[in-house]
Amino acid sequence: MTKQLQLKLPPLGPNLVGATGGSGTRVVTRILRSRGMYLGKNLNESEDAMYFKGYFDDWIDPFISRTCFSDSSEIEGEMIHDLEARLSKHLEDFQAEEHQPWGWKNCRNMYLLPFFHRMCPQMKFLHIIRDGRDMAYSKNQNQLLQYNSLFLSAMEQEQWCSPVQSIALWSRINLWVAEYGEKNMPGQYLRIRFEDLCTAPVATIGHIFEFFGLQGNAQEIARDEVSPPDSIGRWRNEDMPTLELLHQVGVTALRKFGYGITAEFQQQDNKENKLSFYPPSNSVPELLEFPERLQNIHSQLKKSRDWLALIRTNLNSSSGG
User: Fold this and answer.
1) Model's pTM, two decimal places?
2) Which of 61, 115, 203, 219 has its CA 20 to 30 A from that of 145?
3) Total Cβ atoms within 10 A of residue 321
4) How far apart are CA 176 and CA 308, in angstroms?
5) b/e per residue, 73-88, with b = 16+ CB within 10 A?
6) Could you read off the pLDDT of 7-46 as tens digits, one per residue?
7) Cβ proximity of 242 and 163 under 8 Å
8) What is d(CA 205, CA 221) in angstroms, rounded to the nearest whole number?
């Protein structure tokens, strides 16, 4: 039997915001707070809800690696109990007004999305995407440092430089979250691109308001809150050999999320290569059913479909209890 939260939660929530670190979640959080959404009082400079920091530190690794859902209801019970305790702290200063939505922002929300959705079936999730090529050259590589072993093989960690590892993680976690949200959360999952927030802020803010049921003058808020950074497109100044490998690893996700592949990199789609698209075999038990390594994979799309099929199995099992 699937366990559930025993804590009674306020209506109109939770509403969660998640992304790869450095994707623009801070400005979105400011926009949501300006329209009355309660996102907590104990926040850091990035607007992260700090009561949940330790939760992500403790539970992302076992959740992704599947060890806590292999055959241990006791560990799952601890995960639920810990979430209830942190929700209680997060909400203790919440004086809910009529029709006031609530939630929290933490980029790492997306790593636990299936679990949060199972515990809170009414939740909504705002998934923010930023061009993985720019993210590969960001100074913020905290998620890569913490979770590279969950999503990259030992060979990939050893042989790939940091930008290539970064776009591999960006591709795999964002495809995973998009797959889950699109399939399992109709009407409760919205994905926006940071670049669209910068180039079409009024329309993008309007989509966010409609999704969360908020009211406000999107034009005024865009003027006050949105300022496109100079770092958009920074990847174009990097060396070509690294960029070629970057596109080979990230092409499926780049196309999925609407990031154009320029002519000099389109040839990468047709190159036969030995890049692995799979996470390490010890991160998901189902991977052990496959040969130790697949040596020749003829297209990035084929690699993506295989990996997503495996991750879909895991998501279905975790969402189904």
Assistant:
1) 0.83
2) 115
3) 12
4) 7
5) eebbeebbeebeebbe
6) 999 999 999 999 999 899 999 999 999 999 999 999 999 9
7) yes
8) 8
